[in-house]
Automatic annotation (TrEMBL):
Species per Swiss-Prot/TrEMBL record: Fischerella thermalis JSC-11
Transmembrane intervals: 6-22, 31-51, 57-79
Protein name: Uncharacterized protein
Keywords in alphabetical order: Membrane, Transmembrane, Transmembrane helix
Amino acid sequence: MNLNLVVIAMILTLLIPIYEAWKDDSIWQKMLAFSSIATKTSVMILVISVLRDDWMIGVVGVIILSVGNAALMLLAHVIKRMSDVSS
């Protein structure tokens, strides 16, 4: 199996949520799309770290996977609270 095709396929899957975020005006859809992008990017980093046999890159991927989505969801709740107060 050609590993370059796997990496190219992973990059192409990143384009789907980017298109959804660009197309939709809802803030919740944009937040979900960006969360999906963060998750896919961190999985790509983990795959590349396994292919290169470099555990330092893998640690960065795990940190992005665990902390990145938590910060994004916290931001989503802050935006929701702000819109609830202003309405």
